[in-house]
Design goal:
Layout: H1 10-20, E1 55-59, E2 65-72, H2 99-111, E3 117-121, H3 128-145, E4 151-155, H4 162-171, E5 174-176, H5 184-190, H6 196-219, E6 231-237, H7 244-258, E7 262-267, H8 285-300, H9 305-309, H10 324-331, E8 338-339, H11 345-348, H12 356-365, H13 373-379, E9 390-391, H14 406-410
Parallel strand pairs: 2-3, 3-4, 4-5, 5-6, 6-7, 8-9
Antiparallel strand pairs: 1-2
Helix pairs in contact: 2-3, 3-4, 4-6, 7-8
Amino acid sequence: MAQNTTQQTLQQRLEILADAAKYDASCASSGTAKKNSLGGAKGRGGIGSTEGMGICHAYAPDGRCISLLKVLLTNHCIFDCHYCINRKSSNVRRARFTPQEVADLTINFYKRNYIEGLFLSSGIIKSSNHTMEQLVECARILREEYDFRGYIHLKTIPEADPGLIHQAGLYADRVSINVELPTTSGLARLAPDKDARQIEGALAKTKSRIIEAKDERKRFKHAPRFAPAGQSTQMIVGADNASDADIVVKASTLYGSFGLRRVYYSAFSPIPDASAVLPLKRPPLMREHRLYQSDWLMRFYGYAPDEVAQATDSHGNLPLDIDPKLAWALKFRGQFPVDVNRASKEQLLRVPGLGTTAVGRILNARRHRTLRLDDVARLTQSIAKVRPFLVALDWRPTSLTDRADLRALLTPKQEQLELF
């Protein structure tokens, strides 16, 4: 869509480029209700509003929830990925910032206490190297000219020169490279300008640099840091025919091969003037949620990828009405019930309804006394899902574990929400 962007105000460009950035889930953003600080009580301006164009929330490496300016450098792009709203052939409003403008916006937002950091990505303009140079320059201005010590997350471009990605890691707390789609065939069909081997090669090089930088910091106190918060990636769900089992296996491979801090999942959303090869409607948002739950099972509960895949249906997809942990337990009832007073930590983590915190409490409490069902109820949020899968001093589920209608009993009831 040809247009003259030179007449756009800074606010107009921010509106366009902040909206364009919302499709990237890899900074774990979440929205809040928009508030207006103008016209506060007694005619004075209000205080405390940190919501507006481009402001999102993410979690820092130490667990703090922080506000970030989440924005694209530009939504112009020379690539034509079918699923992308900013693709070359898309009929959308275009805008562009200079690195200096993004740096100034970041500092101005920071001084007003709106944000604590920056998430910066971009469409590809002129070339991958040119775009990467612009992203790095923005981070350089912030770090070297403004002495900005806040959080910076840069989305890097796998096609760019490795030296530029290295510079990005020296300035950024975290870097990310999107693998885009779960399968090589899906990427070739929907993103013909991108190469799966090139993407994975860039991920591997970044992993090596992170490890090298950590080793150097052990030997030399003032050695430069390289992406101390690690690297992450994102996969689009529902744009191709990949099943949940395919996505789970891919995520596990990415974690194991490239030492990723997170794999993010983004449900495909239909876009204007969409390509005929794309689905006509988006997948259920619950599918994205179930994938995050399966991701948690592999990272914190000791499940192998093939075990998560065993919880899927005949088409390789996770059930939408129950969580994957319960789905696995229902398929492998022979593993239950487990004795809450004797079972290992690994066995307890398999019990539906018991999270890592509850399991830790149980292991600590049973050192001092033999646990009854009421004790377990006090140590977990809900006992209803737990009862069929464990034995306590005063409780045995007997035939409950093997009931044919157990799934129906444990499936959350759908209720119509009320306004009042």
